[in-house]
Amino acid sequence: MERRVIYFEKPGKENSGACLDVARQAAAEGGYGADTVMVLKSAASKRLLDLRVLEILAKPRA
Questions:
Q1: With 70 as the cut, is the pLDDT of residue 50 above it?
Q2: How many Å separate Cα 46 from the centre of its chain?
Q3: Range(s) of the domain holding residue 52
Q4: Has residue 21 been placed in a domain?
């Protein structure tokens, strides 16, 4: 997998799609040796219960 750095002009929710695409591509190509990737909406430690699992990507068993 080609490693690259993605920069955004401004922070915000409008970048979420591109970040999810990169996570999906990394999981599909297995470039990091991961079998499973979780895509999360982060939360501060004081608000841990606000953390959300948006997607779980898993490679099928061989």
A1: yes
A2: 22
A3: 13-58
A4: yes
